[in-house]
Amino acid sequence: MDDYEKLIASSKEEIANIKDQSKFQKAIKRTIFTSKSKLIFATLTMILLIVPISFMLTLMYYAFGTKSTTLMEVASKTLYVTEPNTSLEEIEFDMSFTPFSMKLAFEQYKRIGEEDYKANTYDLRFFLGGLSKKEVTTSLERVAPKHPTETNPWLIHPENKNLNLDIGREWRVLDGLPDETVVEAYISFYDLMTVKEVEDAMPNVDVVWAAVDTGVEKTNLSKDGYVVSPIGYPVQRDSSTWSPFRDSASNEEVFKDILKTMENHEELATAISSAKNLALPERIAFINKHGVKTYGVVVTGPKKDVLASLEKMNNIVRYLKVGEVKLWNWTR
């Protein structure tokens, strides 16, 4: 074979090798593309499966594990006995779910005069059975301290002597209000009383909530030294569908039953309430031993009737705190 034929043969081999490499590279690219497509498809499939599965597991958890109704019940009952003069409406509850979480939003009301006014809007987020986030937006004009301390209670026990009280200021505030208003007033007594005694002494206004002596209010500290807040119960009958006191023969007995429910979920109840510590076992034991007596109540009615009642009871009223004030809505 001469040099020319050798050159031709060599060129043909090179061309063949180039074609083979090109085919190989195309095959590699095709394989990579196919692998990527399969990976993307598998990932999307997993995502599409995980979302509905997680929702299904979430719904199953809140249906059969820590039930959504239990969380709603604990939240509702806690607020009734730890937030004076407040109520909730069942139709106002907005419940929604995200994977492993539940959102519970609702509005809280205060009775001022003869009408209920929006007091707070709650947004509670639960992760599984625990409260992960709590937001409260208030509509009130006179707001109780966000976090209770030993020296800032609006209702004061007769034996709590460690407070420097400006007794006359709130009386002057009440006296200065127009007669055409209805008011909410927090009244503390010199001595413990029964709710019936309070109602009999104030027939022209509505006694709406009673703070109960639980043995810790003398210092506002539990036996472990933690600050506690007042607990109590609505005094009047409540026909609201959602209220645990609905058409109750004895609000006092319902109150004691609620405390037992809260004790079974004390960590959750404490997180929901404004109090950092409820000290329920200690307080329940005291109530069971000594019975239910009140050291302070929340009343509402026309300003002139509230003021007249307080003046008539001046010898037993130790302290007054004026709450919300609204325009006249009294029809009696």
TrEMBL record:
Keywords: Membrane, Transmembrane, Transmembrane helix
Domain spans labelled Sigma factor regulator C-terminal: 174-324
Domain of life: Bacteria
Annotated Sigma factor regulator N-terminal domain residues: 26-116
Residues that span the membrane, as ranges: 39-64
InterPro entries per the UniProt record, alphabetical: Sigma_reg_C_dom, Sigma_reg_N
The protein, known as: Anti-sigma factor
Source organism of this protein record: Lysinibacillus xylanilyticus
